[in-house]
Amino acid sequence: MSKPFRFKKFTVHQDRCAMKVGTDGVLLGAWVSLAFNPNSILDIGAGTGIIALQMAQRSNATTIDAVELDNDAFEQCTENFEVSPWNDRLFCYHASIQEFASEMDCRYDLIVSNPPFHSEATKTRNVSRDRARFTESLPFLHLVVCAHTLLTDCGRFGVIMPTAAAQEFESLAHEKHLHLIRVCEVRGTPQSTSKRVLMEFSKTPSTTPIKETLIIETARHAYTPEYRELVQDFYLKL
Q: For the chain, what is the domain count?
């Protein structure tokens, strides 16, 4: 059984979730901009609810919703919300994002997602884990279309994904009138190539997206000042 992951201000139970707390989700939850003071936030494919919980810690948004298709993950996400200090602002819906977008009339100032991105070739026999990991359970096109539908006119859409998929995702987003305004390449060390990309989109075009680079460590567990500053409000040991 997976042990709960304890952060500075909340705990994430993850024994029923196929995908456990990982660096990707925490990075997105720490990196996405809240400078425009969003009042409503949506986490698509919430899993444990980690990103939504980070949004609750970082923001004063009165509404922070999450959508999760997998039943076990939905129940665990709901549990994590209920035992958090912000349970009056957090709510998880059990649905696909396509169903949610077609049935709900609400719009959000900020939408975040750490979408599945593995390919068919590496499937396992664990249905819940495969659903959490594989793009066919939430194709990029469906994610982009639903994000555009659910976003307010001045809203932002933040995602994290493999560097190899970033250009495809950006092109799909552009076709659906979501424009890249901020991008960050994430590298494990100064010598390594980028494996992840953080991206932020808006319905309003930007002439030149803000480009950033984040290096996580210079040696094993020797974290860079930039990484520490980004995640220090969350991890207990930083």
A: 1
